[in-house]
Model the fold of this input.
Amino acid sequence: MEAESDERLLGTQSQSSAHQEGLVTIPEAPNPTQIQSLPAKKIGELSFASPFTAPLPSPNSLRRAFTDRIMAMNDNTHEEISEDLNLDLWKKNTTSRIIAVALDGSGDGDKAFFWALNNMIKNSVNINNKIILLTCRSANSTDTNRLEALTLLRSKLQLIKAANIVNTPVRAIILKGDVRHEITDVIEKLGVDILVIGTRGLGLVKRSVLGSVSDYLSKNSHCTCIIAK
Done:
């Protein structure tokens, strides 16, 4: 009895000394079998859910979440220049398809535009088409670059009007940032069904070193991707 009293007294003195010195007593870790039976209860002084109950987010979802946060902070990331935009017309349904055309002001970009216009818009039957024109400027681009992008999209809007294409909603958006990531993200966000792009025709050596936007989009886009040559 005296030995037991001495041990209790010693434990009390140790705890008192620890509190005086500003130390924190860490409880002993529970048995693993106890953790499985306590999915969201306190274990010692820590409260946490059972491990491996939820899958880890994919890299693409993390990148999209980050992009959405950046877009929320900077309204200029995506600049919509569409006239009389009615978002109700852009709701997804089974009787229509959304066709996006990526433009960069080059001859290949123009080929993609006219190919989509002549082969997918004018010749379609019993399909309600919707067109999105996309172009992208770099994150550090100037106001002059923005004006060039604006002029490019407006010229294509005028061509669509001149082609007498009726009952076809059209949107035009200037993106800002890495062209590969921006286009990949926006076409998924807007529910695009088909992406039409051009190719700069880089040689194999240049393409392997610099990378190709068209190659990236064809491999990473969630929708069908057509490279018009």
Remarks:
- The mean pLDDT is 74.
- The helical segments are 2-20, 32-36, 59-73, 107-121, 143-162, 179-189, 204-210, 213-220.
- The longest helix spans residues 143-162.
